[in-house]
Amino acid sequence: MPRHLAPLLPLCLCLAALSARAEEPLPPGMEGAEVLPGWEAPDGSRIAALKIALDPGWKTYWRSPGDAGVPPVIDFAGSDNVAKVQVIWPAPQVFDQNGLRTVGYHDEMILPLKITPTDPAKPVTLSADLDMGICHDVCVPVSLELGADLAGPGAPDAEIRAAMAAVPLRQPGLAHCTVEPIADGMRVKAAIDLPEAAGEVALFELRSTPMWVSDSEAERQGNTLLASAEFVPDSGKPFPLDQSDLRITVLSDAGAIEIDGCPAN
After folding, report:
1. pLDDT tens profile 19-48
2. 77-128 residue pLDDT tens
3. Lower CB count within 10 Å: N or C terminus of the chain?
4. Residue 86 CA to chain centroid, in angstroms?
5. DSSP symbols for the chain
6. d(CA 226, CA 248)
7. Is the Cα torsion angle 89, 94, 95, 100 positive or negative in sign?
8. Half-sphere exposure of 163 (CA within 13 A, CB side)
9. Beta-carbon neighbour count of residue 90 at 10 Å?
10. pTM for the complete prediction?
């Protein structure tokens, strides 16, 4: 279990399955939820998006939500003619409130999707079950059922394109890591070759094994950012951490970068 939990109030919203827009009353803080149908890509895949619109001042969470956040869970199992869905995550923001750091999006979240059809000649029926948290002074869990029938060439969508343009720039090979056991998990220390920029925050994840990760601590040594974080599995014990599975996202005023894999020093 996470060492810290955000305050949650019981609240569930269920939207009509396969309806592109919410037809039932939305909870406080949420203005809308829909599938943006997007367009057909030259390789036969479909580019679409999930759009969650929030009231001003409300926020929701990134895939790795920080020490006190609520990780979103998206299930596409109810879709038809869908072989694979890749969720594309735009760079998030870091929020510090009441001494806790969370990571996510304010006012709205647009998650582009790259959908690979089982049969490119047939239309796609997308079904997305989404469990997420939305927050203002407190956080509430929300469950959504969104969907749409996606057929035809569609048309480029400015909102989807803007979200895709905001994805962190991939910069492999910039980091080297040391890993050591702690009482309830593992500590990762990363040396990242990166010129200094204002507002730097390093976010750590394991791509294939979601788990609680502490807020990172960081300091500068010239053009090297030294950052560390603790990974705590449900077992609460040290575990064999695969360094090739590490993903580090660095946010700063200079932009966002993503580093996949962090070999030993």
Report:
1. 333 456 777 899 999 999 999 999 999 999
2. 999 999 999 999 999 999 987 778 899 999 999 999 999 999 999 999 999 9
3. N
4. 12
5. --SS---B------PPTT-SB--SPPPTTEEEEEEEEEEE-TTS-EEEEEEEEE-TT-EEEEEEEETT----EEE-TT-BSEEEEEE-----EEEEETTEEEEEEESEEEEEEEEEESSTTS-EEEEEEEEEEEESSSEEEEEEEEEEEE-S-B---HHHHHHHHTSPEE-TT-EEEEEEEETTEEEEEEEEE----TT-EEEEEESSS--EEPPPEEEEETTEEEEEEEEE-TT-S-----GGGEEEEEEETTEEEEEE---B-
6. 12
7. positive
8. 25
9. 18
10. 0.88
How far is Cα 130 from Cα 140, in angstroms, rounded to an integer? 14
